[in-house]
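G., before I forget:
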Amino acid sequence: MSFDIGLTLLVLAVAAWTIAARETFVAVVGFVAYGLLLAFVWVRLAAPDVALTEAALGSGLTGGLLIGASSRLRRSQSPAAEEAPGVVLKAAAAVLSILVSAGLAAIVLLLPDPAPTLAPQAAASIAATGLGNPVTAVLMAYRAIDTLLEIVVLLLALVGIWSLAPDRDWGRRLDRRGSTDPVSVLTFVAQLLVPVGIIVGIHIFWVGSVAPGGEFQGATILATMWTLASMAGLVSAAAVTRRWLRLVLTIGPAVFLAIGLAGFALAGAFLAYPKSHAKLMILVIEIPVTLSIAATLALLVAGPPERARQ
Amino acid sequence: MTATLYGFCAAVLVGLGLFGLIVHPQPLRKILAFNLIGGGVFLLFGAVARRGAAAGFGGDPVPQALVITGLVVAFAATALAVALLLRLTGAARQAGLRSDG
Amino acid sequence: MPNSATSGGFLLVLAIVLPIAGALLSLALGGRHAERITLSLMPAGFAVALAIGASVWRTHHALQYFIGNWAPPLGVAFRADGLSAAMMIAAAVLVCGIGLFARSQFPSPRYAETRAPLAFWTLLLAVWGALNAVFVGGDLFNLYVALELLTFAAVPLVALDGRAETLAAALRYLLFALLGSILYLLGAVLLYGAYGTLDIVLLSDRIHAGPVASAAVSLMTAGLLAKAALFPFHLWLPPAHAGAPAPASALLSGLVVKAPFFLVVRLWFDVMTRLPEPAAAELLGALGAAAIIFGSVLALRQARLKLLIAYSTVAQIGYLFLMFPLAINPETGHPWSNAAWTGGVLQAISHAFAKAAMFMAAGLIAEALGHDRIASLSGIGRALPITVFAFALGGLSLMGLPPSGGFVAKAMLLTAAVAEGQWWWAVVVLAGGLLAGGYVFLVLARALADASEPVPPLVTISSGRQAIPVALALCAVLLGFVPLRPSELLQIGRPDLAIGGLR
C-alpha cells in the first residue's frame, strides 16, 4: 500500500513538473518519464497488456514524436515570442482545476460497491474464442468492431498527415535526415538493438493470445525499431506513392474486413467466428494487422513527405 | 483500496492537465496537456477495471481493452496535431495560437 | 424493442463497411482511381440507406444487430430507429451531391498520383462511413471511436489547400474536437464504473438519478457541444468552414457538425429516458438561443461570403438545441413534445441541404470572380443566375419561409413553444428568422445589383456544375411539402413520445 502511495506521489510530481517546466523540451522529457511511471501503475492495477501498450506507445513512440517536434519548433521559433499567461488566468485555471479534480475524486468515492463488472461474462465466453488472454478476447472477439474501426482511424490519421505535404513534395522519399555517419554511436546501437527488438516485437505479438501482449504492443515495438533504424540511417524510407507501401498499410484492415464479412456465411453474423476455428481465424487476422499497424505507426511518426532540410 | 487510490491519482492528473491546457499558449504544450488529461481518463478506466476483478481475473478485461483502444486513438490524435503544428510553423514561421485554444 | 437481432440488421453493417472498404481501396489503388471508386460506391451506399429506411418503415420498429453475435453488455450492438434512417438517407443524398460537385475541383490525375484528389476522395468516404457509424451505433465507446474517425477525416479537409490560415483553423478545430472527445470519454468511464455497461438500451434501464449519472451526462454533453460548435464553443467553426474548399465546407456544415448533435439527442432521449432534466434542458435551449442571436448578428457583419455562411451555420445550430426544452417530457409527457422532436430533426436535415447548396454556390462565385467579398458581388447575378438562384432557395430554408423544410421545422418548434407556454423560445425563433432574412437579402441585393461596369468572370462555370447546388436546395424546398404534423417515420423506435400532437 505504501508502495502505491509513493508511486502515486511520484507520478503526480513528474506530471506537475511536465506542466510547470519552462522549456518545452524539458516538459517532453518529463512526459516520457511520466509515461514509464504510468506503466508501473498499470502493472499495479493488474493490467499488464495496458502497461505494455502505455510503455511502448503512450510513452515511447509518443515521446519520440514530441521530442522530434519540440526540437524542430525550437529551431524555427524565436525565443522571445512567448506570450506569458497573466496571473489572473493562472489563478482562475488553478481554481477550476482544483474543483474538477475534487469533483472527480468525490465521484470515485461514490462509485457503487460491489462494482459492476463484465469479468464473469468474459470468462464464461472465452472458451468459445479459443484464447487464453481475456483482453485479447475483448479486442478481437467481443468488441472486434471497435478494433476494426480503430485500425481504420489510424490509417485515416496517416492519410490526413500525408495530405499536409506540399503538392510538389508528394512523391518524395520520407527520409529527412542528412547523410549519416556509419560509425556513429547511434548507428552502432541501432545495429545491435533493432534485430533484437524485432524478435521481441514478434514474440510479444505471438504470445498475446494466451499471455499479456498482442498485436498492438508487438506492432508498436516493430514500429519503434523501424524508426530507430531509419534515424540511424540503416534503412532509407520509401515514398508514400509506392504501391507496395500502400498494400502493406491496407492489407491488415482488408483481411480483418474480409474475415468479418465471411463471418456472415460461416457463423451467421458480421465478425462472428465459427466455434471450432475461432482461434485460427483470429490469428489469420492478427498477422497482417500487426504488419499494417507497425507500418502505420512508423509512418505516423515519420510525418508528411517533404523536402530534406539542410 | 489501490483502485481508489489510483482513482484519486487519475482525478489529480485530469486537473493538472486541464491547468496546463488553459495556461500554456503554445500549441505543443497544449498537446502535452491533452495527453496528460487523456492519461488521467485512462487511469480512471483502470481503477474501474481493478474494482471489477472477478472470475479469476485481476481486473475487468473490458475497460482494459477500451484503454488500449483509447491509447492507440490518442496516439493518432497526437501525431495529426503535431504534423499540423509543424506544417503551420513552416508555413507561417510562427507557432502560437492568438487566442486561447 | 426486441432483445435480439432483427432481420435486415446486416444492412446496418453494410452502411458502414461499404464506405470504409472504399476508403481502403482508394488508398491501396492510388489517387488515380479514388474518384472512380467513390462515384461507383455512391449508388450502392444510397441504396443501403433507402433499404434501411424502407425496412424501418415497413416493420414499424427499429432495426437491431449484434456484432459477432455477442449480445450487449459484453458485445456491441447497432441500432437504427426512424431518426437514424432519416439521417442516413439525408447523408447519402448529400454525399452523392457533394461528390458530383467535387469532380471538377478534384479530378483524377492522368499520369502520376497527386496529393489533393487522393486525400479528398479517401477522406470523403471515411466521413461517410463515420457518419453512418454514428447514426447506427448502440454503444457509447463504439460511438467514441466513430466520432474520432469523423474528426480525423474532417480536420484535414479544412487544410486541403495548404494556406497558413486554413492550417491554423484546422489545428484549432482539432484541439476543440480533442477536448470534446476527452470530456465525452470521461463521462463514459463514469457511466461504466457505475452501471457496468456502455450499451445505450441497457444503460437506459440501469441508470438512476444521482451525482454520478448527472456528472457523466454533463461531461459528455459538454464534450459534444464543443464538437457541435454550440455557443460558447463556436469559435473554431467560422474560420474552419470558411477556409475549406467549397465541397468540404458543404460536407462540414451540412453533416459533420450534425453528428455530435445527434449523439446529444441519443444521450438525452435514449439513455436518460427515465430521468428527464428540465432545468438542464432549459440551459441547452438558452445556449441555443444565444447561438441564434450571436451567430446571426455576426453573420450580418461579415465582409466575406463564406464567412457569412459559416456564421449562419453557428446560428442555425442553435435552433437544433431549442428542441431540448421543448421535447423533454416531464412526468406525464406533453403531446406537443412530438412536434418539437419532428421540428428539431427536420431543421437538422433541411439545414444540411440548404447550407450545402449555399456553400457550393459561394464556391462557384468565388471561382468565377476570384474573390468572395460581398461588397464586390455586383453583377454576379447576371453572370451566374442559376448559382444565385440556388443561394436564394437555400436562404428560404434558413429564413423559415414557405415552401421549405426550414419553414416546417420552425413552424413545429413555434407551435410546441406556444402550446407549452414557453413563448420565449417562439420569440427567439422569430427573431432568428428575421436576422437570417437580413443576411440573406444582404447578399442577394448585392448579387442582383447591376455592376457599375460589367465584370467579366475570370472563369466560366458550366451549367452542369451550377445545377448541383440547385438540386440540393430543391431538396430543402421539397422537405417543405412534408405534412405539417409530427412525422410518423421519426416516431419509430420511440415508445416514450406520445403519438399525438398537431391535429
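The CA atoms of residues 98 and 104 of chain A lie 10 Å apart. DSSP finds eleven helices and no strands in chain A.

More on Monday.
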